[in-house]
Amino acid sequence: MKILFISPHSHSFEQVKGGAEQRSFLLIKALSLVADVDFIAFHAAKGFDKLPINVLFEQKVDTPRATRSKLNKWLPVLKFGNLQTTFPKNTAKSLIIKDLVSKGNYDFIVTRYIQRAFEFGLLRYCERLVVDADDSLADFFGWQSQYSSSKSSKLRYGLLSRFSPRQTRKFVKKVHKISFASKEEADFYRSDYLPNIPFYEQNCPQINFAQTEARIFFIGGLGYEPNYMGISYFLKNVYQKLVEKLPAVRFYIGGSLAGNEHLKAEWESYPNVQVLGFVDDLQAEYEKSRVIVVPVYQGAGTNIKVVEALQMRRACVVSECATRGFSAFFEDGKDYFVAKTDNSFVEILEKLLTVENLNSQTAENGRKKVQQYFSFDVFAESVRRLLN
Predict the structure, then answer these.
(1) What gap in Å lies between CA 44 and CA 57, rounded to an integer?
(2) Which of 16, 49, 265, 297 has the most neighbouring CB atoms within 10 Å?
(3) Phi and psi at residue 332, to the nearest 5°
(4) pLDDT number for residue 161
(5) Are 198 and 286 in contact (CB under 8 A)?
């Protein structure tokens, strides 16, 4: 079998940091187990030297960004979210792909994101096109509507979010297969579920309270609004109450601030809070922590940090928003804890930080579920199904 993979990213893979890059890397790794993979990247393709792939094209393609009039911006809405109007084709990239496809006898052409399939002009290859959508377009536009600064943009993206399920169904009927990271979203004809799995395969020894502090840990990109807004809310409404009950509690925050350096001083003004920035040795931070928190209250998609924490054999407390895509697999109160209110967040953390048996049993239950449903073997088998 022969596959052409077209990278949706616009930067090097030399350091695979973000969740999007990690999923792409894992997808290519899984594809290479069942096929010969040729690779196109409209950026420097560093970082793929350890994968058995053949890089056909790795060059930045500059295309001038056209100034869009108000009418052009609203045209997708006027056409009820027509995807070809919403995501215009990039002629330069499309021609490069067309030339390379004509030279190779490919069984499948694979990319990520529906919007990239239109940008790259891939609809001419629909019968052999496989698209990892990851998250739905309804989430994509909904997130943009939520964070748009103008009322006009909020309305425009909100309408596109409403139109997108119908347009997605039309698109899915044309392609070979499409995959989503949430089971709830993989309900289209010719769609399948492709789980988000941890990028790293390490895990930690079972928790030992005698060798650890009453430490809470969060890891995530702190330039991403749902993450830094969630941390600010958690500190103000949960952590302050927890400190009153457990003065020895410590909270460590890991992740690149990426332009939000001013938040470091604000967050560290709370008792026993330390902002680590980018963490080189994640396993070491997990090992020193008793509980992992995921206080994310907005945003689209699944939070891979939930599965990563459970894989590391650490008890995890999450907001309801962070359970998206996982509630079918993990049981609240058994595999992890879902904090439905600020006060319940405090109560759960207090128990997990002080009751070692509860902490260790919850962590072990969560780790077993990750092994069962979110291993690379499970991911690779799901990729094989996409190609059937």
Answers:
(1) 9
(2) 16
(3) -60, 130
(4) 93
(5) no
User: pLDDT, tens digit, for every residue of 18-34?
Assistant: 778 889 999 999 999 99
Residue 221 one-letter amino acid: G
Domain covering 2-194 in this structure, CATH number: 3.40.50
Quick one: pLDDT at residue 64? 64
CATH 3.40.50.2000-classified regions of the chain: 209-373
User: Which residue has tokens 């807004």?
Assistant: 229
Q: Are 197 and 376 in contact (CB under 8 A)?
A: yes
Q: Yes or no: is domain 209-373 CATH 3.40.50.2000?
A: yes
Tokens of 256: 């690149």
Predicted confidence band at 144 (pLDDT cuts at 50, 70, 90)? confident
Q: How confident is the model at residue 9 (pLDDT cuts 50, 70, 90)?
A: confident
d(CA 240, CA 298): 21
| Strand bridging mode 215-219 / 250-254 | parallel
The residue-averaged pLDDT of 83-95 equals 93
Tell me which amino acid residue 21 is.
E
The residue whose two tokens read 């890991």 is 254
Mapped onto helix, strand or coil, the DSSP state of residue 27 is helix
